[in-house]
Request: fold
Amino acid sequence: MKSLAIKTFEEYQERYAQSVADPSAFWGEIAETFQWEKSWDKVLEWNFQEPKVQWFKGGQLNITTNALDRHLEHNANKIAFYWEPNDPSTEARSYTYAQLHTAVCRFANALKVKGIKKGDRICIYMPMIPELAIAVLACARIGAVHSVVFAGFSANALADRIVDAEATMVITSDGLNRGAKSMALKEIVDEAITTCPSITNVIVYNCLGWECNMVSGRDSWWHDAIAHQPEHCTPELMDVEDPLFILYTSGSTGKPKGVVHTCGGYMVYTAYTFQNVYQYEADDIYWCTADIGWITGHSYIVYGPLLSGATSVLFEGIPTYPYAGRFWQIVEKYKVTQFLTAPTAIRSLMAHGTEHLKPYDLSSLKILGTVGEPINEEAWQWYYKEVGKEQCAIVDNWWQTETGGIMISGIGTLSPLKPTFAGYPLPGIQPVLLNQEGREIEEPNVEGYLCIKAPWPSILRTTYGDHERCRVTYFSHYDGYYFTGDGAKRDENGMYRIIGRIDDVINVSGHRFGTAEIENAINANEHVIESAVVGYPHPVKGQSIYAFVVGEELPEDELAARHSIVETVSKEIGKIAVPEKIMFVTGLPKTRSGKIMRRILRKVAEGETGSLGDTSTLLDPGIVDEIILKSNTI
Ligand code: WT7
Reply:
């Protein structure tokens, strides 16, 4: 297999220039390194008005042929995944490419026996165990569209996603252990699907040996489903633009949307970016600590690394369980060479102190990645000095669920380091900064709206079941541009620094929520009339959620009322979306036209009540005084 990696910074600059001058020639050459059943007729056809983007049009392939079968000739016995359990006393497991191939084929055959066909949607709600990756790949093998839901979302959130995708099957496990906590996943699935008539099958992996209520005719155990299944499964022939998966993500409107990625472009782009950003070499051991329930796990645990024939670590647990040195113990154990985690994890480990690093040999590390939210200077320096011992490159990967792959980043050890700057656009990516009027900002060090001018192979194709929503959300703000929702700056050398969201999206520990989504959840509480939610800076989580809540009257027992709201949000979305602070108020600051003045609430949440600006246009300025007074007691 030919490596797609650029070898010098000059080569990056040359390749970048080529990719902009002639995208079709550039991507056509890269795409040729993959296995296609039928080659494409045309590399690129697009417009951002509908929008409609087609890459490698007319091509046919199966992504799993490229991620698995392709490696069997020379690398059948190479480890694809080392699996490290949540609890260090549980036995670790590993899969070679040959073993993974067999496991995927057997499970794919089991899916077929259950009547699953190309195009069917399958919801996957599982712990971070090898079977999660196997389930994902088995869907891709037979052309079923996977929709992985992070196993931390509640029954209601799971049900919403199943209903939206009209999924016919759920793949889950009895339960999961994450750190010291556990969750009964099958029970949550049972509760969710009481409102999901499309579900006719549930497959349950026996992860913890827990008893489960199995509904006859609907539910089956994973081990029973794969028993007697053959070890070969002919890959389904997919059109390059057939959907590969749906992944739900939050935006500034209430309901999460199903971002749709397709087979060919996603394959080419995730492999290309993985090999370039992580400069993966044959004997390297790569570890990304994300969960496969998020896009990072899809692109940089499952597809990108496997397409590249890489060896990865798959970790079930969390950074601090059962001790704060767990990450570093795993780095030492597997001699990890490339490590990718989130700023929130870095900050949390930084807070635990450097003594937890000391016992471990981290000298195998070459490249340290950070992803999911802006990294602050202090965390960057700690990562660089304490983890990397000033010997590793830091690559800050900026991208989104919608972009499918890394867009702006350092390029392995090739590009210069600049703390808190994500870096350069990868080849094929044409970012621009727009001002309020939608004009491109040319001068350096000016903040603007980050947009992308031309398509790249893994750009989202639609939002499931509602193409208009895709157009309005991403392609209507500025005509002819993909709108990211982020603000950014570019320095005199063309390096980008991501400032953060400019829309109503809150990023808590790298998890994305819409303010409206959380407000809807809070409003589901029977005592709540209305609410407003804002994000505010948090030393570990990046941002935290502050909720201003209006009930019929102020609660007598605030503690109980708060508890009740926490319960409601946990039920509607999941514990990950619970507000850190809740203030009960008699009203919200609104303009005369009834619009909530979030600017004011944000200031209050940030503790800057002295600089609220002009409040004279408010319907009831007295509300602000009430809120300021109360803010000292929250
Ligand atoms: C949003 C996308 C990227 C996969 C995981 C999150 C923020 C992401 C960075 C970064 C600054 C970042 C942006 C983006 N974000 N990476 N390196 N530096 N901000 O994917 O859930 O789709 O969220 O996360 O605000 O828009 P996501």
Summary: Residues 249, 294-296, 371-374, 396-401, 422, 484-486, 498, 500-501, 507, 510, 512 surround WT7 (CB under 6 Å). Residues 174 and 211 are 7 Å apart (CA to CA).
